[in-house]
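Check the record.
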Amino acid sequence: MEKSPEQHKYKNSFLNWIEFRLPIVSYIEKEYKDYPMPKNCNYFWSFGALATILLVVLIVSGIFLAMNYTPHTDMAFDSVERIMRDVSYGWLLRYMHSNGSAFFFIVVYIHILRGMYYGSYKYPRELNWILGVFIYLLMMATSFLGYTLPWGQMSYWGATVITNLFSAIPLVGDGLKTWILGDYTVGNATLNRFFALHYVLPFVILGVVGLHVVAVHVHGSNNPAGIDIKSKGDTVSFFPYMIVKDTLAVCVCGVAISVIIFFGPNLMAEVDNYIPADPLVTPSHIVANWYLAPFYAILRAIPDKLGGVVLMFAAILILFVLPWLDTSKTKSCNYRPVYKWFMMLFFVNFFVLGYVGMKPAAGTYLLIARIGLVYYFVFLLILTPFIGKFEKPKKIPASISDILKDNNLSKSEHESGMH
């Protein structure tokens, strides 16, 4: 007779029946109830949970939108208008989906920048970082595919501009472009395959997010100090402490999204996309989604088409090797007095690139884009390895508990001084 596996005992007999055959309840308790979190984690650690919830909202709203959308060049634009006017709460579904995707990128950008600032990409979390960058790549692809579906002017011409980039690849470019489009130009075959891929990719993203979470739980979460957990006193359980913190963050984000949906649903939309796609009329200014604008600015900063394409993809792919570019043993920028300021400038530079990416590629905007492009690569390829070797970091506390004790002591001394 086979030996029964050890199992948790619950008061509910049905839970015991499930646990004996599929120990999912104990797994959830271990990973999402008793999971130890560093005590000093701040609200920046809530953005991962926010991103996951937003992804689920996007998938659910997207499924209902797909039920009423027609992926055909003659009917796509009209089907979107029908969703807005005739489908019950169709307007709400569409605005939840479009504005939810914008907030999804905002949350993920904060999540990425937090990881860069606090060194969450360093040993032993390199694979977790790589999975995160892969998720970001999938998000960009999914966003671009979805941008074409309303089949307005900006959808059509945006798809035309981006797919034309593949023709810049030597030898195979034209064939690759035709293979992607399913035709020689953006048309019905393109719209059909873009719709199919846009529907499938969010589920792929969800799967990679699952791997991302598993990888986080192997070595534990990083923290603002970048210090490894030394004892149980350095941690709190995920429930209720982090759950309460994440719930507050979700409520604040939900209020912000609701304000946009109900009072400014087209705040982040393009006016030209309310004009049906016309291959014979080119918009005066073709722009990418604002959350992809930093890389669009890099693309347009180089006169040579192939050079722009190479640099744009390099700007994204270089993030995969960031754990090995950073030579410093100190994780958190809080203890890196020199590198911290270059990192902050990198963040500002990224947002500036996003701004100029939404503007015409000429004059001052083009000059700013080129300066931003230079700093982007100089920071990652030169400053990050160089500063890591020569910078003298601040003294790092022995444990997370010591940091909290010092903070409490400083707070007490400050309050005593006020009295």
